[in-house]
Amino acid sequence: MVDLFxxxxxxxxxxxxxxxxxxxLIGALVGTLVGVLPGIGTIATVAMLLPITFGLPPVGAxxxxxxxxxxxxxxxxxTSILVNIPGEATSVVTAIDGHQMAKQGRAGPALAIAAIxxxxxxxxxxxxIALLGAPLTKLALAFGPAEYFSLMVLGLIFAVVLAxxxxxxxxxxxVFGLLLSMVGSDIETGASRMAFNIPELADGLGFAxxxxxxxxxxxxxxxxxxxxxxxxxxxxxxxxxxxxxRKDLIDSTPAILRGTALGxxxxxxPGGGAVIASFAAYTLEKKIAKNPSxxxxxxxxxxxxxxxxxxxxxxxSFIPLLTLGIPPNAVMALxxxxxxxxxxxxxxxxxxxxxxLVWGMIASMWxxxxxxxxxxxxxxxxxxxxLRVPYRLMFPSIVIFCAIGIYxxxxxxxxxxxxxxxxxxxxxxxxxxxEPAPLLLxxxxxxxMEENLRRALLIxxxxxxxxxxxxxxxxxxxxxxxxxVLTVLPNLRAKRDEVFTESEN
Length: 505
What we know:
Layout: H1 2-15, H2 18-36, H3 42-49, H4 58-83, H5 92-103, H6 107-141, H7 145-162, H8 167-181, E1 184-185, E2 192-193, H9 207-225, H10 246-268, H11 274-288, H12 301-316, H13 318-324, H14 330-341, H15 350-353, H16 355-376, H17 380-385, H18 391-410, H19 413-431, H20 437-459, H21 466-469, H22 471-488, H23 490-501
Antiparallel strand pairs: 1-2
Helix pairs in contact: 1-16, 2-4, 2-16, 3-4, 3-9, 3-14, 4-5, 4-6, 4-12, 4-14, 4-16, 5-6, 5-12, 6-10, 6-12, 6-13, 6-16, 7-8, 7-20, 7-22, 8-20, 9-18, 9-19, 10-11, 10-12, 11-12, 14-20, 18-19
């Protein structure tokens, strides 16, 4: 416990340096902006800013990217409540009851409860990261190559289970991601593979290039296809009375606690994340409510629970990243990309070798959550006015910004062309209900899986039974296999779909 406080103290020293405070503020502001503006997702934004972080100090760069991720969860609630336009996928559920409260003239309490729930969940999640970080790192150091390989298989299976839509399509996306990770040179022999004699592919596909194409460009094409001008009937009346009543606080407190607990668990699980947490928290509140018919008509629990859950999940998803080096969702996969750009190898050694990075990031989350409360509530009017900017004016600047960012990584024009190609592929995937997030996880985990698979087989002299004779590896593979079997069962498939369709009712 003494070590924990010493580490946190060191973290605050790092986080409170002027440059890191500025990065935290920029991250919180950009995150809120991303959350408010529909059509600019968190994944796309982090993918866009990935090349820019190349010129920043590693700690500051990761603090900024982390701030964007959890800041977007705050910003998304503002437009969901006021104008029924979810800026973020995580805020789709918040719009159901939040907008009804706004129509009843209770936009102020809805925004306040969303901010309070988010702040509380963010603080709890940060404590969890600090508490679980060191024990999980010690456990991870006991892992051998076979255990690591099995853990990554489990992570990818979790991504399949928790992905929206068809199980088969999610598996196809993971396989596609794994294949993309194999383009370039063999990690042991150096022989060229799947490069098709194209010199530019000899070193493999750039992670930032694929991410930018599949998420950034594809998202822009999709928004233009859907009709650039969205319904922007703004709430004209002045938002007043931000303070929730005593009854509001009493009603929302249990929902905030339940949402925080559920979000914290789902954030740690591979394949989970903020989206699934907000849907699950809303479904839970509706199931346990004495009067479920209140939901959809302005129930404050329907705002408190999902907003707490998505913030808790956004922050606890850093736990597997910082301790095991395994990204649980697409945004964390991009964080791995950011670490790699700065020459940091994600994994259990990071906590020991990079204490400034890990503890500075953990401390910055507290500071960031406090900044977000200040940014969001008093500045609500400014954020809503931004919605008046037509998308046709926004998208050209976003495209130019993306292209410059990609080009700046390697100074290679071919990277911009590849990002454009992956943008078209990403758009096709979205149109045919393939979720791109598992693709990104497959691409990030591919090289690590291959490396650990080869190591395990070298140590065992080519004996494949090593994966089932080592107890921990066997348990992890058994869990993965049983999860895959369960997803095929009709009852569970129906339940799985229900979580996602709940918001459409």
